[in-house]
Model the fold of this input.
Amino acid sequence: MEKSVSKQCLNAYASTATIHGVRYIIGDSNESKKSYRIFWILAFICSIVGLGYYAHGVYMKWSIEPDIGLTVRMRPMREIPFPAITICSPLFARDSMANFSRFYAEYTATSGKILPYLTPEEQNYLSANIQACTPTSSPMIEKSCRNRTEKNIPKLLRESSLKVPELFAACRFKKNYMKCEKMLNRVLTNNGYCYTLNMQSYQTIFNENVISRDFDSFKRETIAKSFDKENQLYNESFNDADGNMTDPNQWSLDTGYITNDDNVFPIRAIKINQLTVYMKLTESDSTNLCLSQGKGYKIIFHLPNEIPTPFHDEYFISFDYERMMTLTAKSFRNNPEMRKYAPESRRCYFDGERSLKYFKSYTKAHCDYECMTNYTLKQCGCVKFSMPRDDDTPVCDLDKTKCYFKAMMEWPDKDDESQQGDGKMLMPCNCLPSCSDIKYSVKLDKEAILDSAIRLAHVKNKSESNVYARMAIRFNDHSIDEQENYVAYKLQNFIADFGGLLGLFMGCSILSIVEVIFHCIRACFKKGQVQEIEIQSVPLEDAIKNGTKLSNQSFQMNSTNGCYCKNNEGFESLK
Done:
């Protein structure tokens, strides 16, 4: 009986089904002959396959490979920081400690036998500083100092480096002159020790396991205050109104500034924040054979939460010239709803998604630099003096110079795997950009000859034996463009596309699914109402003998789902 009820429900559904082809497959009409059924079953299977193929693509687009939209809006310039600016002098070693010109002259005069006449201290300073420059005499110096085993190269570089007053003549910010040593901090770079401004302290940038003794203690004062030019030319106070030093950690790349105050660190980027720096060098030093990048200054722009790395763009200012640099900035954001996708799909990392061994905050430059460091350590067993490291990582001496230069040139082509995290698990570097980022673009105006009589009017202790260069940096607008990525393909788009595919391949809709559910429930409900009546076939003569009175006419006994009829032989079920 249950089979008969199911059959009836299937026939009832087949006669009213809105899904194309169903009545030809499960119906009992003449249209459901075997040949028809085979054809429609094949057609149905093809439609299911097509639906599955395209539905998979729609699902991938919605759940795994996002369709990203881009919106652009204007933001006030003051909501982003002024960039950190690192200035590298071409001369980074004091002549009294590492005079390469004198060494080369004496080396030539003694036919290469000068080494016995150098003190151990001079040999140490020469062997350390040669790694930070590329002089014409480097092969000779390298040969003479080859046997030096001094390991504390950063310490030697720091001791022999020039101080701020020896390299900078004057600094001006927001139309007020100030002492450059109040603005600049010494930082170890690929070119030796340079000076940077508006960069966060190394305690904020590096993890606790990183050696920090190679870096100066960063000044915690802000240079964002306006200065009283009438009272004093060089203002020596960088504290707030109450005399307290300002908090150096008032900005992060993901959250921006935590306060609306103007007196914050890093300083805000506003159009009137023109920065002017006068750089100097004695004329005798400008002919030194160990000039790191020719006769001029190297300028590096980077985020305040980054250290200067080989992956940042560099700009050049020659001696006796002045150059105006106009900055434009763009801010990049990703909507928080992008977090549900894998970093490989959205092509960026949110804050906290990727941890680095040496750096607290993730940026692409930090990740690349860490991977290069790991690759150099793997190839050479040591790292270059400027690379981040912990106490267990040795610094390469002069014998390893060629090795780490080769490793730095090979990376990232041969860097298939690098150690990340705790150093125990090998994984590809995969240095994606940050989901929140700021890009500074620099437009270099034409370099002009420095007019010393006019441009150096505010420089104290001018000397005819010095050569000067002037750098002016400013923003060209009061606002910036912020580009935000968002999920353009949402759940409603997925439902609409999937519904379209259902209609195209199956000719059905949500109501068609409701229809199937309805007939299934109806079948179960009818099965519960079936009353089975068991009737045995009894010959008519026996029934008469037993006293049963029956009419000679046929009769029907109706039940809910069955029909029982009398015939000449007795009683039996017809359905």
